[in-house]
Design brief:
The protein is α+β, with helices and mostly antiparallel strands. It is built from 2 helices and 4 strands.
């Protein structure tokens, strides 16, 4: 479960930014997470709740996860398409773009 290590890194980063800006408390953290990042959002949220409770700065802060879509391309002659959609035929318009 690498999500716990990621959460520790996020908390350290937020604590540093808070200290640099003379903030005592943070109410929410917004994290942009790529859909093929390999991170499980539910695990990340569980780890966040546990680890954030141990920090004065982020204790009780909400973790908001925004999933960033991923686009893939198989070759230069094939357009990009969203992850999870079937690959378009060569020369066809890509769905969703």
């Amino acid at each position: 479960m690498h999500e716990l290590g990621i959460v520790f890194h996020i908390i350290r980063s937020v604590e540093k930014v808070a200290a640099e800006n003379d903030l005592e408390k943070v109410s929410a953290v917004v994290l942009e997470l790529g859909e093929v990042s390999g991170v499980v959002p539910d695990y990340l949220t569980d780890c966040w709740k546990w680890a954030a409770a141990k920090s004065e700065t982020v204790s009780g802060a909400e973790l908001r996860i925004e999933t960033l879509p991923t686009a893939m391309a198989a070759a230069q002659t094939i357009p990009r398409w969203p992850t999870g959609a079937p690959a378009p035929a060569a020369g066809a318009a890509a769905p969703g773009f």
